[in-house]
Amino acid sequence: MVLTPGPNMIYLVSRSITQGRRAGLISLGGVAVGFVVYVIAAAAGLAAVFALVPAVYTVLKIAGAGYLLYLAWQAVKPGGVSAFAPKELPIDSPRKLFTMGLVTNLLNPKIAILYVSLLPQFIDPAAGPVAFQSVQLGFVQITIAVTVNGLIAMGAGSIARFLGRRPLWMRMQRYVMGTVLAGLAIKLATDRTKAVAA
Asked: Do the beta carbons of residue 28 and residue 150 sit within 8 Å?
């Protein structure tokens, strides 16, 4: 899920290519804080709302699957653009970089879907407090996401140059990501798991 291009990756790559690695890492700090906000919301009982109102959970899952399919189409459609071919952005201050990273993550539907639809499927009420399991899973996801996105931000310029000289690789990257996103969308839409209450 972390490797699939979404708003966070596109923003971090754009910042790193336009303004340098430091800017990408400052932006990543904002993204990381956004992840923590989602973990806290999930542990505070967001899942309980969905357990009490199953229709809301179902609507979110369907909307989430639709969004993932939209991202998949954006990756594979004719003339689609890779995350490593971002638009140029103006130079921003460290404060704005951090804030935009945070806002980008908080408004990222892919992350909302992850925390309220995908992660709860791995929670086992018999294994202990649901809130504690939510926090554990959330921080595992944050560690993976920050590590992967940090590596991408650090190597964005090199990756973009490498792919830019190899159009076939650029297309392959788009198709692999599109396939992964479509697979996640289908799994999410067809999953019969109900929301787990905190």
From this structure: yes
**CA nearest neighbour of 150 among 60, 24, 35, 39:** 24
The phi, psi pair for 67, rounded to 5°, reads: -65, -40
Question: How is residue 116 written in tokens?
Answer: 């309220």
Q: Compute and round to an integer the Cα radius of gyration of the chain.
A: 17
pLDDT by 10s per residue, the chain, length 198: 787 777 788 788 878 887 888 888 999 999 999 999 988 887 776 656 666 666 766 776 777 677 777 777 776 777 766 655 555 667 889 999 999 899 888 877 778 777 776 777 777 878 888 778 888 888 999 999 999 999 988 888 777 667 667 777 767 767 777 777 777 778 767 766 555 444
Handedness of CA 178, 182, 188, 189 (dihedral sign): positive
What are the boundaries of each domain within the chain?
A: 7-190
3 state DSSP class of 92: coil
* pTM for this predicted structure: 0.68
Q: Residue 174 to residues 14, 45, 74, 147, 189: CA-CA distances in angstroms?
A: 17, 36, 9, 22, 22
Length of the chain: 198
Contact 11/100 with Cβ under 8 angstroms? yes
HEC sequence for 105-142: HHCCHHHHHHHHHHHHHHCCHHHCCHHHHHHHHHHHHH
